[in-house]
Amino acid sequence: MASAGSGGVVAYEDLFEVIDRDADGKKFDKVSRFKCRSQFEAELQIDINVDIYKLEIGTRFTLVLAPTLSLDGTPEDASYDQSGKESLADGYEYVMYGKVYKKEDENSGGIQKAAVNISFGGLLMHLRADPKNLQDVDIDNRLYVLIRKIS
After folding, report:
1. Rounded Cα gap, residues 105 and 85, in angstroms
2. Which distant-in-sequence residues (6+ apart) come within 8 Å of 30 by Cβ?
3. Distance of CA 34 to the CA centre of its chain
4. For position 19, which CATH number holds?
5. Is residue 3 part of a domain?
6. For residue 147, what are the CA distances in angstroms to 67, 79, 83, 122?
7. What is the mean pLDDT of residues 59-84?
8. Residue 51 backbone phi and psi in degrees, to 5
9. Between the N and C ends of the chain, which has fewer C-beta atoms within 10 Å?
10. Where are the membrane-spanning stretches (predicted)?
11. Domain for residue 64, yes or no?
């Protein structure tokens, strides 16, 4: 679902619902692993710092993957922009920056899926979705994940 969200370049966007939390037990005090499913049958596991962002089973949220926070899609340089100008992050509640370290195609019962793994400084995300929806996400990409709850 690559699109131009808020004028910037979005590599992936979908709506998810939390269906489980810490299914394998809680490993860290401030981090929980959430299992989520989307309206388009995508599956998501994502680590969230629950000390600063609360999610509960049944919570619905929008998730976006974007290579830049710039509203016009301009690539970022290595320094943090402290100018305070508007960015894609302004429309979201929780933002992390990380790197795609694994991408593979899967075939389960004749249904094609692509799976990507992204590390956000040790917090992990695993996303399985239709390959067309993940075509703009490649190994070694550096991406932002942006999350906003749907009320």
Report:
1. 38
2. 49, 50, 51
3. 12
4. 2.40.50.140
5. no
6. 15, 23, 23, 18
7. 86
8. -70, -30
9. C
10. none
11. yes
Q: Is residue 2 part of a domain?
A: no
**Three-state secondary structure string covering the chain:** CCECHHHCCECEEEEEEEEEECCCCCCECCEEEEEEEECCCCEEEEEEECCCCCCCCCCEEEEEEECCCCCCCCCCCCCCCCCCCCCHHHHCCEEEEEEEEEEEEEEECCEEEEEEEEEECCEEEEEEECHHHHCCCCCCCEEEEEEEECC
Angle subtended at Cα 125 by Cα 2 and Cα 53, rounded to the nearest 5 degrees = 100
Instruction: Give 32-71 pLDDT, tens digit per residue.
Output: 999 999 988 899 999 999 999 999 999 999 999 999 998 8
Tell me which residue range forms the domain holding 105. Answer: 12-77+84-149
